[in-house]
Amino acid sequence: MAYLFGLATVASVGIATVIFDFTRTPFRNVPRPSEKRRLKIFDLSADTYDSRENFFEWITRIKYQRKKVFSKARGRVLEIGAGTGRNLEVLNAAPGVTSLTCIDTSGPMCEVLASKIDEVKPPFPVQVIQGDAADLPFEDKTFDSVISSFAVCAVEHPERTVEETRRVLKEGGRFMLLERGLPANSFVRWLMKKYDIYPNPNVAWELGIFEDLDVGQVLTQGKFHLVGSSPSKILTLHALSARRGCSVGDRKLSSGSRLGLPELTDKNARVVFRYTPEKGDGAAE
């Protein structure tokens, strides 16, 4: 039985490697695209994004990783770079979530997410905001949990985004991430770069994301403490949980979990959609 399991594992890895190599964006040593050009990629791909990602996520077990990482979200939850809402299914089933605020720079992606929320009808209030994760329109210490799936690697200023995330998290709050980035092992990192495997600058032009993110470094520089997980030594997919430091160890959130949706502090951020379970439907703003 162990022998058969081993063969199945090797076969699965082989198939995944072939698919990865076949679908991989061709390597090109190009400069970074402008922010306007890069953000347009997300606007234009909003309607087809889910169909493109579904098969790839099944092969790479990213869907399993989403459940493993984000089912632990609790209280007031903020999702940065929420996109088309690929984490909505997991959060909908998470018993500790009391409200969900989603923010993304792409208007078309926000519209797709809004339609999903209206269809799923979660048991907690949800709002969708078109805004900038590097300039979050919320007061300090507003959220109990912040989640990010392939969002920090898709922003122009990841350090600023992490700083803003820490600002809006309560003391002891958790920042849960699923990100693409450089392997933590320096030799593996050197080897992949030498043979033009990873990072690939052309990916930013094709998919809108940057592959040169050092996930662990940007979190520790942002004064987060990694808990229960760390960046992968050899892989480019990182599943992490980080805690916002507080003065008395890893204590409970001092102010408790506030219910309901937070108000915006920035008039430049636009509320695209709000949903309340009491009414049973949502409303576009």
Automatic annotation (TrEMBL):
Give one Pfam hit by family name. Methyltransf_11
**Is the keyword Methyltransferase in the record?**
yes
Describe the location of the Methyltransferase type domain by residue ranges.
Answer: 78-176
Biological process annotations from GO: methylation
In its keyword annotation, does this UniProt entry include Membrane? no
Q: Which UniProt keywords apply?
A: Methyltransferase, Transferase
Give the GO molecular function terms.
S-adenosylmethionine-dependent methyltransferase activity
InterPro entries per the UniProt record, alphabetical = Methyltransf_11, SAM-dependent_MTases_sf, Thiol_S-MT
Q: Know the name of this protein?
A: Methyltransferase domain-containing protein,putative
